[in-house]
Model the fold of this input.
Amino acid sequence: MRVGAPREVKNHEYRVGLTPESARELTAHGHDVLIETGAGMGIGAEDSEYIDAGATIVPTASEIFEKCDMVVKVKEPQPAERAMLREGQILFTYLHLAPDPEQTADLIMSKAICIAYETVTGLSGLPLLKPMSQVAGRMSIQAGATALEKAHGGRGILLGGVPGVAPGKVTVIGGGVVGFNAAQMAAGLGADVTILDRDPEVLDSLGNYFETRAKTRFSNKANLAECVAEADLVIGAVLIPGAETPKLVTREMLSTMRPGSVLADVAIDQGGCFETSRPTTHQDPTYVVDEIVHYCVANMPGAVSRTSTYALNNVTLPHTLAIADKGWETALRDDPHLANGLNVWNGHVTYRAVAEDLGYDYTPTAKVLGLEAA
Done:
């Protein structure tokens, strides 16, 4: 199979779909690998490293889309990239379709085979989303701490405090991978941390791990409102796989917060969990609503591109190889977890949550693969 990785074109996105090491694995399996020139520069990988790995460097993304059977990316294809997709071509990347009707419509029109990292499952959780969730959770505290500085519009709070001065208060909404990593970082800085979740088992696990270093609260409307009102920094770490995130923090709740407090919405890729959230970029990461600073960068891990790219390739490469070695249909038939990644196929939406959120007819993947529906 011919597999290609174009240079990412989203604002300040420095990651790349394939590392030189991944390219070497693919060529060792007998596949042709095409890399757009400069695609690896954001992780410090020169074109020569890809050439040494057996890949071919091509001058433009259009050549990748024109010649490759499978395109491997990091972020969702931008409009110009979507226009280059063709019928039957495999796209393997993060998609986050539920809050993005324009992208969904374009992918349907392309009749490409679109497999989303974020809905591929594993024995526990979402293994292709997990490393980026770990990165984003940790980065959210760095970003929030910076936004809290007076020079960046915040209250002028140091999260860890100093002797004689109370630390900042951090509320983390959601105790999954993002929330756990955010709480780890915040507690490590010495902040006063509270984690909210609705799953008693998650709360029990968090309580056992953090002991006295962080508090846990059951996430209901009253507890959420109280914790948000008291917080200097609120981390939105809610995830419903493949679906648009519910808006848990309303605009009305902003009036209960102290001016200069910060909301960091790590759920923004799936629409965000704050009513006042809208996607921002690393170039212009924050904005203010009702005196509350909002940080809603939709590709947070792109700022630490080398760490993120290698962490991502560690989990995506086995699936990339399976698709390239077997063809997408056999690979998905052989691996039900990978099959859960199919979101769009031949003009049909094959992921239930996306179909329901955007009003499309749902075509089960089992039907696409000629398998009996569960």
Summary: The two ends are 31 Å apart (CA to CA). The CA atoms of residues 286 and 295 lie 5 Å apart. The longest strand covers residues 192-197.
